[in-house]
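Hi R.,

As promised, here are both runs. First protein below:
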Amino acid sequence: MADAQEAATTTAIRTAEASGSEGNVEISSVHCNEATGDEDFLDSPSEMKNQKKKKKKRSTKKKKKDSYVAVGQTDPPTIPIEQLYPDGQYPEGELQVHPGDFNTFRSTSEEKRALDRAQKDLYATVRHAAEVHRHVRKFAQSIIKPGVKLIDMCTQLENKNRELVVEAGFAVRVIGVAAALSAWTVAFDPQFDPLLEAAKAATEAGIAHAGIDVRLGEIGGFIQEVMESYEVTIEGKTYPIKSIRNLNGHSIGPYQIHGGKSVPIVKTDDQTKMEEGEIFAIETFNTTGRGYVVEDGECSHYAKAFDVPHVPLRLPRAKKLLGHITRTFGTLPWCRRWIEREDGGSATINPKGAKQEKYLMALKNLVDTGIVTAYPPLVDVKGSYTAQYEHTIVLRPTCKEVVSRGDDY
């Protein structure tokens, strides 16, 4: 069953197996002359040493130093990102021009440059989040392998994320401003490669056509055109690849991962425009099924509704749980497994003993009253396959910055 769940995908990117370590060089006392077929005997250790040196000279170029190790990070990563960039100057993302003739003035406008400089603190915060994501996803790419339990994978990644942020400061700043979102898909069978390539190419098309004063419905058309130009052959049967029409990208706002604007991945008549200063998650989902997902299965992901009006609660347990959710996560998504931790989801925010127990009735009450929104799994038809890619872009006054871009994707 294809799972296109957006709230917390368990998918990740296909990783090329590193072959950087050189194999052991076996030195033989007999060397065959390829030109004559004669055997040349290396009679002395010095001669063998010279032969070894010659072999090294013929070796390929040195592998490029890992970009994360180059900034002082360990492998696997253990150093908090703030310590790697003590001056607060985090790596700038990939810069692209805003599309359209009506935007050409932006790169040279002194007024727009001044507006850009005024937002340097915002950019630094989002770049910080993006750098954390790049380091964690590199770690993810090293541990995601066939046979690994999903629960073990998730736990390792969550612990690594906690390790790389100074939670007391970083979480508050990012939650109050914005976040850097990015997603990718892993497949261990090359027959699925076209499915991954389609989602990746469609995401890049969405990024390329996104920009200030661009209409959202038009972006969806460009995404769909690229996505549905692909097909995939699985077990000898060829399937057209479709965009999942009821899933979208979205704007990102303060304390709101899913902002008020949606970026469709199929062509629509939506005339809403992207605006200067906005942040968007450009994400695409595809499928070999019908191109439409429905909710199905046990729900584990939730979020407190944004701008929810005051609702009187009669259950004391519901009031207690709501207080814990508000204090720990605000309006950001969370999963039940987190509140079942000894720290209730945050070792910094909560004292020891914040673990939530016997809370299911209280949680149901919060969902039924609309205070908390449930995000159950989303599925297409049984037997179909899906892939997803996502990047975060900032619509700066002078340019468009893909803050989540890395050397992997």
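And here is the second one, sequence first, then its structure tokens:
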Amino acid sequence: MFGITPYRRSNDLFANPWRAMDAFERSFFGGDRASFRIDIEDEGGALLLSADLPGFEKEDIHIDLSSDRLTIRAEHHTETEQKEKNYLRCERICGSYSRSFGLDGIDADNISASYHNGVLKLTLPKLAAPQNAPRRIEIQ
């Protein structure tokens, strides 16, 4: 079987009774603000992952691969200073988004990525399915 599995927190209400309220709030207000939306398409020999990351530069996006886990992080920092008459204003905006996926049946050595017009695209080639031909075991 091929696929990538997003890592999610457990929904154990005894561990955190407020998690149900957090989930309700995320669904009502349009999702998790510390995450980003993705699409995953099965193209036969590979999975195509598209992540919407508008406003980020290529240098702000980091893709890390550790054993069977792929993590996409996007961070940006903006600082503006404006001086008018007696007013002084300095604002800092920092944003950080992250998603992690388990790589089940993916050829991690041949993953490729591109970024254009705010969309990150990863091509995740599938591993060849193991051939389970029947064979006879000799008794010694």
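A quick note on the second one: The beta strands are 3-6, 38-42, 46-52, 61-66, 69-84, 87-104, 112-116, 119-125. Let me know what you think.

Best,
J.
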